[in-house]
Amino acid sequence: MYARGMSQRDISSTIEDIYGFSVSHEMISDITDTVLPDLEEWQSRPLSNCYPFVFVDCLYTTIRNEYETKKYAVYTMLGYTMEGKKDILGLWLNETESKHKWMQIFDEIKARGVEDIFFISMDGVSGLEDGARAIFPQVVVQRCMVHLIRNSIKYVLSKDYKAFTAALKKVYAAPSLKACHSAFETFQQQWATYPRAVDVWKRNFSHVEQLFDYGSAIRKIMYTTNAVESIHSSFRKVTKKEHS
């Protein structure tokens, strides 16, 4: 109940309604507080020294305490170890998403032992790319294809989503850079009726071209994986309002 955003007062009332006895706010607070040391230990644990792939994203979610309900930005960072295992590097709360906060997070993971990151997939938050390179100078920064798709289809009628995204896949999943350029030309002509959607890809096409600096296996990881999304999906479930 606490995870679903219910206040201590709501939890106490719900228990009394269902089970017929009351539980003090202090007891509920004591119970929820028992997990905090474990959470703090997990959040500050040492990390691997190298992550080939790291995916970063931010989710806005509503959090309620005894006094107010407020939206917060949850910063999420997930990496793949050299052995190919997923590792959530950490979760951070802040009132908004900002370059300054991301810089603090990159500093923190370096202090916790991360020496090298090969690829970072991220959205287009202003300054985020420069912030990542300031801490990890050799990192390759890749715009997340999932974010670009979302940013573009908001300008497309829902009846055209399927055909539009299928045409896009022929661009970023092309077998070669030459084929990518050819597919992009076709895409621009085919979807000229949605100039704002096409413009999203024109402005970010260098990030698509960058994919072809690497082999097909790496390209596929970078354009098919939005690993953070499954974490955010879990957040949405547990923070959904009780009566929604």
UniProtKB/TrEMBL annotation:
Q: Which UniProt keywords apply?
A: DNA recombination, DNA-binding, Transposable element, Transposition
One of the GO BP terms on file: DNA transposition
Entry keyword annotation includes Nucleotidyltransferase:
no
Q: What is a GO molecular function of this protein? A: transposase activity
Q: What does this protein do?
A: Required for the transposition of the insertion element.
Q: Which family does it belong to?
A: Belongs to the transposase mutator family.
- What's the protein name? Mutator family transposase
Q: Which organism is it from?
A: Piscibacillus halophilus
